[in-house]
Amino acid sequence: MRRAARYNPALRWIILLRDPAARAISQHAMERARGTESLPLLRALLAERGRLHRARGDLGWNSSLRNHSYRARGEYAAQLQRLLHHFPREQVLLLRSVDLARDAAATLREVYAHLGLAEPLRMPETLRHFEGSYGHHALGHAMLRWWSWQQRRKLRRALDVDLQS
User: Fold this and answer.
1) Among candidate residues 99, 102, 101, the one with its CA nearest the CA of residue 130
2) Which of 14, 96, 127, 162 is most buried (CB neighbours < 10 A)?
3) Given phi > 0 = left and psi -120 to 50 = alpha, else beta, which region is 159?
4) C-beta of residue 97 within 8 angstroms of C-beta of residue 17
5) CA 17 to chain centre
6) Residue 135: other Cβ atoms inside 10 A
7) Contact 100, 107 (CB under 8 A)
């Protein structure tokens, strides 16, 4: 963030937030399909902290920071607080993925307004990509639902943002 702020202090940010549990489950399914994850969901969640600690500073393509950061990437409150330390709130547009899915045109209007751009005469067609059915892992899903509830609470307290629909 510090480098981005030095590069362009007027930079405008568009942040799309997804339910942290759904994001983690989706990433786990993707990593399993790619072959970078061999552990089932619950075991992967339990191994995450150690994996990330060992990979500290490694941003390579095969790093656990990229491939096994199921919960870490959903800790939005801390990430956004770091962003807001370097950029004023009016330069940051927070959007929810549920709103984009529900009403893409309205969400795109917010993006155009945030960027100071004129809206096109016709909004671009929006298609959903990378959707999948991920099966059900009872303990892993229960753990993520509880953790997601905590993350949403932190986000509401820190930034007055709610990820619920």
Assistant:
1) 101
2) 96
3) alpha
4) yes
5) 5
6) 9
7) yes
Backbone angles phi, psi at 133, to 5 degrees: -105, 125
Q: Which of 84, 55, 87 is nearest to 68 (CA)?
A: 55
Contact 144, 77 (CB under 8 A): no
CA distance 7 to 86: 12
pLDDT digits (tens, 9 = 90+) for 24-81: 999 999 999 999 999 999 899 999 999 999 998 887 888 888 899 999 999 999 899 9
Using alpha carbons only, how large is the chain's radius of gyration in Å? Answer: 17
Q: Is the pTM of this model over 0.85?
A: no
* Segment holding 16, helix H or strand E: strand 13-17
Chain centroid to CA 142: 19
In this structure, how many other beta carbons lie within 10 angstroms of the beta carbon of residue 90? 8
